[in-house]
Amino acid sequence: MARKSWIQRESKRQKLEQKYQWIRRSSKKEIKKVSSPAEKWEVYKKLQSSPRNSAPTRLHRRCFWTGRSRANYRDFGLSGHILREMVHACLLPGATRSSW
Known about the structure:
- By secondary structure, the protein is mainly α.
- Helix 1 runs antiparallel to helix 2.
- A hairpin with a 4-residue loop joins strand 1 and strand 2 (78-79).
- The chain has three helices and two strands, in the order ααββα.
């Protein structure tokens, strides 16, 4: 089980990302349109004024079951060892067991 503080921190990042998503996208489009370097720097300043944790690259996928941040499978939303346990218990239809 992941620490609750890590999970809370991740949820705050998700909320910030949703809040500043439109601002980030619009400023990136502006950067592509502007031709002079001075104007680009102004737009970069606007982009950098948003909180650091609002960047989508700071988000991590977490296991739905345990909150683990590593070894996640996108298709299932589960970490590797939980996925293996569920396959061995025949809880995931269509998945085959392996002996690893």
